[in-house]
TrEMBL record:
Native organism: Klebsiella michiganensis
Name of the protein this chain belongs to: Starvation sensing protein RspB
Gene3D superfamilies: Medium-chain alcohol dehydrogenases, catalytic domain, NAD(P)-binding Rossmann-like Domain
Domain Alcohol dehydrogenase-like N-terminal: 24-133
GO molecular function: L-threonine 3-dehydrogenase activity; zinc ion binding
Keywords, alphabetical: Metal-binding, Oxidoreductase, Zinc
Pfam family, one: ADH_N
Annotated EC: 1.1.1.103
């Protein structure tokens, strides 16, 4: 199979590798689509202190299960799945209180262990989440980024009477806008960025008001509209 490998910082190659076989408790996923995250570029440039090299990057990926390891009974060949890249032990203190993202033996696909920039990847069966048939492939690959927006908004539990300010209209900002407007249906979403192209995308994603704060300071703009009080 072909894999995109970062052998060391600033050295990216396409390698031919053996197709992996799932161990007990694992499934093999034939990758259909994978997203590029900013953290992938950090690993490429050597700016992620946790990355081990050589490394197949990619932690936002989606595919179809094509092999099942011993002991896996709740997955089936042919299932479309989105992969949770965070592998946790399930029994340390953080895991026991519902915080597997800070597991004491945390492993992240594409960082500590090879990720999804390959034709195939083996992952723990519990990390492969079935995707409903009504979710298209191109939307399924965005599930992992949308979990970030779900986590952010879940912490504040906005209502339809709230006004939300999103500072930055990059990929995470855009997904957060969509969740705020289409899930929580907040009253107004204000988005701030310094790049007009991103602000245009914010409007297409549901922003009610966009502000380029490279032109006028944000505080001055909000104050002029009656939003800002000291």
């Amino acid at each position: 199979m072909k894999s995109i490998v970062i052998r060391q910082p600033n050295e990216l190659v396409i390698e031919e590798r053996p197709i992996p076989q799932p161990a007990a408790g694992e499934v093999r996923v034939k990758i259909k689509l994978a997203g590029i995250c900013g953290s992938d570029s950090h690993i490429y440039r050597g700016h992620n202190p946790f990355a081990k090299y050589p490394r197949v990057i990619g932690h936002e990926f989606f595919g179809v299960i094509d092999a099942i390891g011993e002991g896996v009974t709740d997955k089936a060949i042919g299932q479309r799945v989105s992969v949770d890249p965070v592998i946790s032990c399930g029994h340390c203190y953080p895991c026991s209180v519902g915080k597997p993202n800070v597991c004491t033996s945390l492993v992240v696909l594409g960082v500590h262990r090879d990720g999804g920039f390959s034709e195939y990847a083996v992952v723990p069966a519990k990390n492969a989440w079935q995707v409903p048939d009504n979710v298209t492939d191109r939307h399924a690959v965005m599930i992992e980024p949308f979990t970030i927006a779900a986590n952010v908004t879940g912490h504040v539990s906005p209502t339809d009477q709230d006004i939300a300010l999103v500072y930055g209209a990059g990929p995470m900002g855009l997904t957060t806008i969509q969740v705020l407007k289409r899930v929580y249906r907040v009253k107004q979403v204000i988005v701030v960025d310094r790049i007009d192209e991103r602000l245009e995308m914010a409007q297409r994603n549901g922003a009610d008001w966009v502000i380029n704060n490279s032109v006028v300071p944000l505080a001055d703009t909000l104050k002029a509209e009656g939003y800002y009080r000291r």
